[in-house]
Write a structure and sequence with these properties.
Number of domains: 2
Structural class: mainly beta
CATH topology of the largest domain: Ribosomal Protein S5, domain 2
Strand order of the largest sheet: 2-3-9-4-5
Mean pLDDT: 87
Number of strands: 14
Low-confidence stretches: none
Length: 213
Amino acid sequence: MKGIEIEMDNQKTIKQRVSVMGTSIAGETDAKVTFSPAPPSTGIIFIRKDLPGCPKIKCSFEKAKVEYRWTSLVDGDVRIEHTEHALAAISGLGLDNVFIELEQASLPVTEDYSSKEFKRALTGCGIVKQNAKKEIVKILKPIVVYQRESLADMEYEKFLIALPYHGFKLTYVLDYPNVPEFSQVAEMDITPEIFAKELADARSYIIESEVEL
């Protein structure tokens, strides 16, 4: 792929099974997810235990579907919804190979709407290096993704810009055109330690005008 280079490092998984309980996104029913160790080069695999045949979906950008403010994985008629908080914890902690078992379509929502409980569960059960190398993407030239959308009386512009860098740094700029007091900027070099300390507790939010829709 143009603009990227692959570097190698050791793959990681968790030591043992661990579950996280919460509610459905609508808050109407209990929901549960179970994380299990996976062999090297397996990737992140979701398993719908509630469906005939226990279909699996491998986490990949080809399966990703962004739906308003959440991210789902879709393969034919099989869906895994609201994956972002669990996947943030998995990625932030540097995990490469994990089985994720569900008894419902959506991952559970925890009480504070963040990645904190997923982080706590995954670090609590232990993380181990595996005897295999993983692929790490290295950006060689600028890559830009742009989207524009309308919501009620507001126009949104979204940018994702990837630039060459010797590590993994995130710069996040929030600027609602109609709510100037909401403008914020955050920047940090991402490591498992920084993710656990600074990002895992970050909560989902929407502004009042979006709730009214």
